[in-house]
Amino acid sequence: MTRDQADLIRELTSREATGGPGHTEDAGLTAAEAEAVLNRLAGHLVPQPTTAETAALINRLRPLLPRPAARRFRTSGLSREPLAHFLRTQLHHFRPLWWLASLGFVLLGLGAGSFLADWGLSPAVLAPPLIIGGVLYSFHSLRGAALELELSCPVTPAQVALGRILVPLLYCLVLGALPVLAGTITSGPAVLVAPAPAFLPSAILAVRLFLGWAAALFLFAGLMLTLTLHFGTYTAAGLSTALWAGLAGLHRLPLSPFSLSHGALWTPLQVGGLTAGLLLLCAALRGDRLRRWVERRGR
Amino acid sequence: MGVIELLRDEELCRQIQEGSESALEALVHRYHGPVFAYLYRLTGHRQTAEDLTQETFTRLMTQIHTYHFPRPFRPWLYTIAHNLYRDHVKAASRRAYPSADPERGQPPRLIDLSEQITEQAALSQALRSLEDGERAVLLLRFYQGLTSEEVGRVLGIPAGTVRSRLSRAVRKLRDLLEPASSQAGRSEAP
């Protein structure tokens, strides 16, 4: 007796099947009787379709096979979908925990502001870990199902990636205003930009400080996206963090992006860093690697 | 055996949705016989069963886009087959044509056949003597190996009803096929 048959006999002789406790005895079914009936039924033969009949059926069905749908939407570049639309869609992927954690990190940095200043570090030193965390979160959480849904909409992979990178980037830019403002207000321009010409008003100094923050942010965002597409999120985060630690360690050099002392070449270097970050972002968003990466994640 | 034949029914279905011919072949090879056997036992008529089997697979292909992975495939397939059988019975009765099985509804009678096929005839007659609902439950549960829950989904009835119908069907078959043991069992009962 097979296991299936044993299960069936158990089911047949169960109280529920036989009609419950009030059921009449003569209508009941014993396990032996059920087994005997099933054994006889197992001997019932039916004609089987021949191989030729099966082949003929397959031939009849073949024209009904669905044709793989041609892609209806662009696969590269940017479609005409307004930026605000897919940015709003991307917001759903970022849980409240991430928003709060990023804010908490900046506030923590603010709390440690005086220590940073003592070590000669600019508040911009907080920007890279913030954006590394943001990109890691947004791209690592790009699950297959969500991506499949996104790609079924009229947006290109580049737009999906752009949306994913823009949310943390914009949020970090806004957060950057906090330490800059706080630094300007609490420490004063003399502390923040020690070698700066004394005649520069504090507003301009704040702009310079914000430029440092933005440059670090864009540079590391571009770096993270490029490295993510090549090596994956974790490796990208590891390499970027190592670079950040290295640059922070070299902050005593006047040209370091995290240095408080602003030499003559400081501003052009910040603009250069910002431009390099933008170029890295554009290159990553236009490349074939992005499409391959999206397809790999979508599987 | 190709790799495709190792795939589960549901995975084959998904491949078919993407236009895979080999998945179609594997699925038809897997289910042509069982579906035909189910419909043959339901109708008791070879030509009708062949037509309904073809129609079942055609319907499957035209509705394949409605399949959602990982919905269990077998209940879906047998639902299509059973609905086609029901439509066939309705259409046959509307046209006032004799049903595919002219002996349905009549009490089983013994046929004077050779020794070798007497047993098959007795089994066929016993199956035909069951009510439609009882026969469908027995075929799906016993011959096609569906669970009671799956049978319930195919026929649109609760699993409890499936079990009670199945028990009733087997009791009827016992009385028809094993009258001696049935009588003995009853007389031995206290």
Number of strands of chain B: 0
Unreliable sequence segments of chain A:
20-26, 189-200
CATH superfamily of the largest domain in chain B: RNA polymerase sigma factor, region 2, helix turn helix motif
Number of folding domains of chain B?
A: 2
Overall strand count of chain A: 0
Determine the oligomeric state from the structure: heterodimer
Total number of distinct structural domains of chain A: 1
Low-pLDDT segments, ≥5 res of chain B: 105-111
Draw up the topology in text.
The complex is a heterodimer of chains A (299) and B (190).
Chain A: H1 3-12, H2 15-18, H3 31-42, H4 51-61, H5 83-91, H6 96-111, H7 113-118, H8 127-140, H9 144-151, H10 157-186, H11 188-192, H12 202-231, H13 233-249, H14 266-286, H15 288-298
Helix pairs in contact in A: 1-3, 5-10, 6-8, 6-10, 8-10, 8-12, 8-13, 10-12, 12-13, 12-14
Chain B: H1 9-17, H2 21-43, H3 46-62, H4 73-94, H5 115-129, H6 132-143, H7 148-155, H8 159-177, H9 179-188
Helix pairs in contact in B: 1-2, 2-3, 2-4, 3-4, 4-7, 5-8, 6-7, 6-8, 7-8, 8-9
